[in-house]
Amino acid sequence: MTAQATDSKILHRSLITHPETVESASGSYYTLSNGQKILDGCTGAAVAVIGHGDPDVKAAVMEQMSQVSYAHTLAFTTNSAEELASTLLEGNPFGLCKAYFVGSGSEAMDAAMKLARQYWVEAGEPQRRRFVARRQAYHGNTIGAMSVGSNVARKAPYEGVLLLDNVSYVSPAYAYRVQKEGEAEEAYSQRLVDELDAEFQTVGPETIMAFIAETVGGATAACITPPRGYFEGVRRLCDKYGILLILDEVMCGSGRTGTYFAFAQEGDVRPDLVTLGKGLGGGYTPIAGVLAHRKVIDVLAKGSGVFVHGHTYQAHPLCCAAALAVQKVLERDNLVANCAEKGKWLEEQLRKKLGPRKYVGNIRGRGLFWGLEFVKDKKTKEPFSPDVHFSREMRNEAQRLGLAIYPGTGTADGYVGDHVILAPPLNVSQEDLDILMDLLMKTYDVVEKRVS
């Protein structure tokens, strides 16, 4: 980070320091204004799934701009939007049949929440007004999305003023801190499902619209993965009470975990609504979306026949053209399968080379989506005090050495805990993965010595 940001007219995330300026980006690398090259080991926030500067995406956007750059969806549609939806929903995978494209993952979650509410109003059960979600989850920064998330630091200024009060929470699928010592995976999974069942009964299942969960946890708790059978149990429970299941795959979807939909690895899940983002457009344009199951669409179609929601820039033709080009690159280069294969190598290297280190408490993830949780004491799992800034030190030192990683705090309970996330492009070369591991180990060694 550079010094004072007083000369910038941008309201940056920090008012104290100014971020480095990226002059160009190509493949897996950024080039900064000072000439330094940075290996993008996290693709921002798990965004740039096909890396930077792809010529096919650039050509697709230019072609779309030469045809039509904007059309309002109240009256018009465009070929790029229609083809993107058809590509994502070819064969109605898992019963998903309609796509609603917006500009960000937060907007996608808000749209999913509205779809859930309208579904129940039109299904004749308007008393369903509540959501159940999980602690240590992140679903976006708009008011609705933030309300169902549980990122403590981001919610703190708005509690009791702006956030919704119709949300309750259950435990996350966070084995490192929730699974009991000696507890079998199946027993742990069932305990989580039983807890959810108890929450449904406490709240009153007839009052609940939907249960919302990240299939694989994102930035708040760093790539936490569900135990075997968990989401199948959740699906059966939602079916039992008629509650909708909304899966947030804004960060973990679009191939990031080794299958296009992360939930495809969880057995018979069949979500009613799925949110996608980040990897959907690969960072080339801002785009996210909601994919809806035919069950939801059929109720609206037989009722009002409209979705009471809209954005000026929804299904923006340039954004859809870019996202469509990204999907074609993923398919052409077999990058989702590539992600699964290279993810095995990355997991092995992380566990072998960093797992034994003094402050590495847990390594978790799937595909090319891995989180490292750091703790002060590996035996007790005691987190560092926030004033140690372990994850921030990791990020800063990594960037100094030429590697971008994604840091996070409040990992353990929203207040304490440190982690970093690795999420390189799905087409990252083996050479660059080797460099990533080398720089990550050097980064950790410096920070460990500094902290010790």
TrEMBL record:
- Enumerate the UniProt keywords alphabetically: Aminotransferase, Pyridoxal phosphate, Transferase
Please list the GO terms describing molecular function. pyridoxal phosphate binding; transaminase activity
Would you name any one GO CC term?
Answer: cytosol
The answer to whether keyword Transferase applies is yes
Organism per entry: Pochonia chlamydosporia 170
Organism phylogeny: Eukaryota, Fungi, Dikarya, Ascomycota, Pezizomycotina
- Annotated family: Belongs to the class-III pyridoxal-phosphate-dependent aminotransferase family.
The name this protein carries in UniProt is: Aminotransferase
Q: Does the keyword Cell inner membrane apply?
A: no
Cofactor(s) recorded for this entry are: pyridoxal 5'-phosphate
